Amino acid sequence: MTTFPIRTFSKDEALVKERQEHIIRRSTKAFVKKGFSQTNMREICKACEMSAGAVYHYFGSKEEILYAVISSAGSKQAEYLESFASTLDKKEPGRALASLMRKLFEWHNDNQDVTLFTYQETRNLPRDAREQIFESECRIHSVIEGFLIEGAESGEFRVEEPKLVAHDIMMLAHAWAIRRWLLRKYFDFETYLATHTAVLLKSLQRVEAEG
Amino acid sequence: MTTFPIRTFSKDEALVKERQEHIIRRSTKAFVKKGFSQTNMREICKACEMSAGAVYHYFGSKEEILYAVISSAGSKQAEYLESFASTLDKKEPGRALASLMRKLFEWHNDNQDVTLFTYQETRNLPRDAREQIFESECRIHSVIEGFLIEGAESGEFRVEEPKLVAHDIMMLAHAWAIRRWLLRKYFDFETYLATHTAVLLKSLQRVEAEG
Amino acid sequence: MTTFPIRTFSKDEALVKERQEHIIRRSTKAFVKKGFSQTNMREICKACEMSAGAVYHYFGSKEEILYAVISSAGSKQAEYLESFASTLDKKEPGRALASLMRKLFEWHNDNQDVTLFTYQETRNLPRDAREQIFESECRIHSVIEGFLIEGAESGEFRVEEPKLVAHDIMMLAHAWAIRRWLLRKYFDFETYLATHTAVLLKSLQRVEAEG
Amino acid sequence: MTTFPIRTFSKDEALVKERQEHIIRRSTKAFVKKGFSQTNMREICKACEMSAGAVYHYFGSKEEILYAVISSAGSKQAEYLESFASTLDKKEPGRALASLMRKLFEWHNDNQDVTLFTYQETRNLPRDAREQIFESECRIHSVIEGFLIEGAESGEFRVEEPKLVAHDIMMLAHAWAIRRWLLRKYFDFETYLATHTAVLLKSLQRVEAEG
DNA sequence: CATGAATGAGGTTTCATTCAT
DNA sequence: TATGAATGAAACCTCATTCAT
Question: What average pLDDT does the structure give for chain D?
């Protein structure tokens, strides 16, 4: 995970990192409950069990904390999926893609609040911070696209727009978090995942008759 | 569209409705530029070319304006799609669905800012208002689901989870607005629409060999 | 007196001016008591008998109030002296200069606190504001210099460095305010003024023997 | 120069004095750049290359440092001028006074920032500290006055208000620092000094015809 | 004796909302 | 009815000072 370009007064890098991660962890909880603008510094400090001064020792502003929270979540997700992807057998693209989808969907199931929060609050970041955030998304997008291309090149998949398919997979994983109020009414997680995995693999299937 | 209940007694309901719609229109513009929390009443009043007192004559609070903005956008969308759907020939589900998708995607292309805004700011509404908002979504969901079921019943489609497919269609329409920073890099609107329409219709196709 | 380039929300110019002058008047009193940094907004508001919001309706920041206070004092002084100077008979430079010195010294006697305050707090203004402030000083400097040159041209004075003499006169007028802790120990105002007037006029005297 | 009383018991008085002078020296630099209130302890510590704890070991508060800075500058000036005055030949008051003026004006030319700073920030000291500061001024005042009286008694000068003349000399020396924004526009240091020296000596001259 | 992380009161400023005109 | 000046609570953030290490 990256370190954040924040205003810190301390030089003990290990301490800084530890405290920053602590603040990120606790603030995330506070933020997802009430949203960024509705959470005031007093609540953040309380959640962190730190004084205002201490929090401002490690972050320059409330906005910097927001950036750290969102960016950290993005990086962690990207690292996690990249790392998992590297364990997959590229010779079996179908199976690999299914595994990857499970991990991806599970992530957003386990981190529903953060996913939703990211969609809602990224707007409150300045443009350049926002673009930093998008990078993690692009990394994940590339990983998925990679498997699609792999499968296409090995002849197992037929996929014309791998970028679009990769995007749709991500979007549907996110949907489980950001549209839960609708989806939860009708589906449980396993059904949601299984159905989409099946539909996707089916649509990627090379039609025999075409050969 | 509804007239929003106001605190002050007013004789001229038509005037009230007109003024409210004016405020909704202008506030929407102001809100999508900077977000709900970042837009203050002064800016709203300026955008509306009205005094604070006047605005508060037609809405009880800033939050009520937010609710009106989001809810109004939702209702308009639902009305528009329901009305369009009613013109479609149910005997040709494939063609009808394609037409509906185009209208749906076009709506979110034309109203990108509002779609994104809705995702971001619905959180700032109280629970019951939020649920009101979801209603419009459900109406649209039903319309789409209706065509899928129609197609299934007529034997043209094979669709196991019409609710899920309907949801995915909506989600992908929204994606064009809420993920534009990614999608716009690679696709134009027509490609995005065409590809998804094709993939969907294909996946709904009754496989002949199965018969 | 100039109007200040401040952030105001109101458009009723007369009201704005009236309220600004009220705030300037009351803030001056508050500032000279404890100094700029030691006077907080709560005290300023109390002195103005206004709420914080109201004060910020007419000034954009505490610093803008400081600027207005200092700049207003400077302008008033310059206007007052210019106006008085214009009543003086240029044909009697000696008498005119003496009158002008009295008015100048009296001003700083009557406004000791403000004179001292100006020396102390001008530093807290941004560079360009500071330069605006210096303008009033220059106007007064010019007025005094004018009489010296007049006297020289009419042959009544012998003055080699009118700019320097004009400056010294101002400085000694200010001294009565900014060094009162020392001067008051030994002199009263009239003595201070009379002695300096006499010394100056003497030193400007054309020595007969030289002719 | 004095050692400032500190709260902690310290065995090594020499070390204490050395550290205090170090802090005074570095803080002076920091203070004159941004002013007392605008310079925070972090900046002071950085300028001193010491930790906050260390600085607080040698001074009880930020205000005490301010006092030390101003008071130290005053003492140094007084000591310097007293010491220089003691080398002057009292039998030649005219020459002596001219020499003393040069040293005085040069001091304030060399320490412009500190002179200005003293005028600006003495206000931030408590009353009794302020009076301590004035003492140095009085010492210098006495030295100058002494030469004037000497000259009067020896019959070389005619001076009716030696206290006032002494004060004016000091004020004009300070003016070079505190009014530099105006004076520097028109004069260089040597002209400023020479003109004032000449004018003064002239005005002190015993008029022969009077005898 | 030195460090510098931590404290938390208090600073300036904003803003939704009201109400006298 | 319409206005917009006024309110004042509460927001974010800073900073002199302390004290455990």
Answer: 92
Question: In chain A, what percentage of residues exceed pLDDT 90?
Answer: 88
Cβ B137–A172 below 8 Å, yes or no?
no
Question: In chain F, which nucleotides are within 7 Å of a protein Cβ?
Answer: 1-20
DSSP H helices, chain D, are 13-34, 41-48, 52-58, 62-85, 93-110, 112-121, 127-153, 162-178, 180-186, 189-204
Average pLDDT over residues C113-138: 95
Q: Whole-number mean pLDDT of chain C?
A: 92
**Mean pLDDT to the nearest integer, C127-151:** 95
3-state helix, strand, coil in chain B (%, to 5): 75, 0, 20
Q: How far is A171 from chain B (nearest CA, A)?
A: 7
Stretch A87-113: mean pLDDT, rounded? Answer: 95
| Residues from chain D contacting residue C179 (CB–CB below 8 Å) | 167, 171
Contact C38 D199 (CB under 8 A): no
Residue D42 to residue A29: CA distance in whole angstroms: 33
Question: Distance of CA A93 to CAs A75, A85, A86, A162, A166, Å?
Answer: 25, 11, 13, 13, 14
CA at B51, C1' at F3: how many angstroms apart? 6
In this complex, the residue with its CA at the shortest distance from the C1' of nucleotide E18 is B53
User: What tokens were used for D196?
Assistant: 């004032």
Distance CA B141, CA B78 (A): 9
Neighbours of A186 (CB within 10 A): 13
The confidence band for B6, taking pLDDT boundaries of 50, 70 and 90, is: low
Nearest nucleotide by C1' position to the A39 CA atom: F11
Q: Count CA atoms within 13 Å of residue C56 on its CB side.
A: 6
Compute the distance between CA of residue A112 and CA of residue C186 in angstroms, rounded to an integer. 80
pLDDT number for residue A207: 62
CA C165 – CA A157 distance, rounded (Å) = 95
| pLDDT for the residue D207 | 62
CA–CA separation, D154 vs C69, rounded Å? 50
Decide: CB of A27 under 7 A of nucleic strand F: no
Average pLDDT value for residue range D87-106: 94
CA distance D201 to chain C (A): 11
* Alpha-carbon distances of C70 from C84, C114, C176, rounded to whole Å: 21, 8, 18
The pLDDT value recorded for residue C12 is 80
CA distance D100 to D88: 8
C-alpha B11/C-alpha B13 separation (Å) is: 6
Least confident of A152-161, B173-182, D33-42, D200-209: D200-209
Q: Which tokens go with D82?
A: 């007293």
pTM above 0.90, yes or no: yes
Residues of C with a Cβ under 8 Å from any D Cβ are 35, 37-38, 119-121, 123-124, 134, 137-138, 141, 160-161, 163-164, 167-168, 171-172, 175, 178-179, 181-183, 186-187, 192, 195, 199, 202-203
Checking if the pLDDT of C92 tops 50, the result is yes
pLDDT of residue B205: 84
Instruction: Give one DSSP letter per residue of B70-83, joined into a string.
Output: HHHHHHHHHHHHHH
Encoded tokens for C3: 């109007």
Q: What is the mean pLDDT of residues A51-66?
A: 96
Token digits of residue B189: 């609107």
Asked if C71 and C134 count as a contact pair (C-beta separation under 8 A), the reply is: no
Question: A61 phi and psi, to 5 degrees?
Answer: -165, 165
Asked if residue B41 keeps its beta carbon closer than 7 A to nucleic acid strand F, the reply is no
The Cα–Cα gap between B49 and B47 comes to 6
Compute the average pLDDT of residues B170-175: 98
- Pick from B29, B143, B27: which is nearest to B96 by CA? B143
End-to-end CA distance of chain A: 46
**Which residue's structure tokens are 């549907």?**
A172
